[in-house]
Each structure stands twice: as C-alpha cells, then as structure tokens.
Amino acid sequence: MTKNLDKDGLSSIVDNYQLFYIDLWGVVHNGVNLHKEAINVLKEISKKGKDYILLTNAPRPNKIVKSFLEKMGMEKEIREHVFTSGEASLNYLKKHLIDKNFFHVGPPRDFDLFNDFKKMKLESIKDSEYILCTGLFEGYDDNLNYYKNLFENNLEKKMICTNPDLIVDRGNTRELCAGSVAMVFEKMGGNVIYFGKPYPEVYNQSINNKGKKILSIGDNLNTDIKGANLLNYDSLIISNGIHKNEIEQMGIEKTSKSYEAICNYIQSDLKW
Questions:
Q1: Inter-residue contact 56 to 25 (CB < 8 Å)
Q2: Which DSSP helix (H) or strand (E) runs through 82?
Q3: Are strands 130-133 and 158-161 parallel, antiparallel or unpaired?
C-alpha cells in the first residue's frame, strides 16, 4: 500500500533515512523554473545532517547541468549535490572507448559530453565503431521512423545510451528522450549499454551509499522508482510529473502495477 504524504510532508519520514536520491527534472524544476517548495526540502534535509544526491538522467557532464541550474537561480551549495547520467557515461567512455571512433545521435547541445575526444566523432554511422546516443537530432525529434532507417544496416554496433528516459516534460511540452531512440535500436535487435536510472552504476558512482538507509524520490516509474526497486531502496513518487494523467485516472496502485513498479510513498509535489 502506497502511503500519501500530502498531509504530513516529507518531514514525517525524513528521520527514517540517511541518504536521499532526488530527481531533478519533474521534482526540483520543470525545465523552466525551480520549484520553491522542493528547494526548501533540500535545505531542510541538510539541516538534519542528512546526505542527498540530485540524481538526473541528463546526458551531459555534471558541470554543464550545474551551469544550467545556476542560470535557473539555484544556489551553489545545492548545485554541488548534482550527479548526471552523462557523468557516469563519460567515466565509462574514458575508461573503455576513448580511442574508438563513434557516431553521435543527439543534438549539438550535448557535444560537451565528448569534448575530450571529439576527434573520434565520425559523420558516417557505417564507418563508426560504436553509436553514442544522447538524444534526438534537431529536426527529427518527434520521428522515430527516421532512426529505424538510420540503424537498419548498423545493428552489429554497440550503442551507449546516456539517458534511459523515454520522455520528459519541458514546461507544458512533452519531448522524446534518448531512451526512446535506444528502445528502437534494441527492438531491432541491437545491443544497448545504458547509463542512468534505473541502472545501478549511476547510483554507485554518485556517492558512497554502502550500508545506508535510502529513499529515492522521483516522478518517473520507469526510472526513479524502478531503480529504487532494483536496489532495494524505499521510494516516493511525485504524482504531478510524467504520470500525472495516469495517476489521476487510475490511482497510484493500478498505475504503478502497470509499470511493474512499487512505490512506498506518494506526494503531489515535493514538500517538507
């Protein structure tokens, strides 16, 4: 049974945990503005002497996302808690694929991810040794059939996906993410290595979490909540995010069951 925290707030359960993994997009901001109540929660968690990581499936290095959040008005002390799926991917790429040619699928804004080895980027997918997927091409950001054609004769290559999210809401606009492209590749028979929630690597790279009682907070059942389930963390779903309409229509029990996910708690928006 999922407990509703709208009345009592996060403060009613905070003492049960030592570490909090908190999603950024859909919880702390909406891609345009910071959520003030959520920012207050982060400050209160710190006052309690607890750790938190702002864990985000952003396909860019930590420093780029921190810069984005600074422009949004987020304080430096809070920004220091950011860890991205892009950072986890970058650590892997530098260790295992730094000298391999690759074909990049994604917009120019993601070029920062491979700045240190941009000379290895090829314009031809056919000649590349692996595919690096950070998102969708500009101009082809709502047409997955384009990617089916692109991948058709290149399924023997490995794909690195730096953001497992399928969709994201930017303000009131819903957009496809890298996970949707990777799913096309996988369904065609391709092999994908994912970095980001729900996969354990991004959690384990972000902080020493051994032996800690952990609560994972997010708005995405596929990533935030499934990640918590896989790692035996407790979870809190924010219902005014990606799944808002589904939860309003079916309720949280039926919605989470349809995604094969288990939520310990639910809250409309993150509030203390």
A1: yes
A2: strand 82-84
A3: parallel
Domains and CATH numbers, the chain: 3-57+198-267 (3.40.50.1000), 88-194 (3.40.50.1000)
Interatomic CA distance for residues 207 and 25, integer angstroms = 20
For 176, phi then psi, to 5°, come to -75, 150
The rounded distance, in Å, linking the Cα atoms of 232 and 219 is 18
Q: Where are the beta strands (DSSP E) in 200-251?
A: 214-218, 234-238
Q: Can you read off the two tokens belonging to residue 151?
A: 């991948």
Round to whole Å and give the CA distance between 51 and 67: 22
What tens digit of pLDDT does each residue of 186-242 get? 999 999 999 999 999 999 999 999 999 999 999 999 999 999 999 999 999 999 999
pTM of the full predicted structure?
Answer: 0.91
Which is it for strands 102-105 and 51-56: parallel, antiparallel or unpaired?
Answer: unpaired
Q: How far apart are CA 68 and CA 89, in angstroms?
A: 19
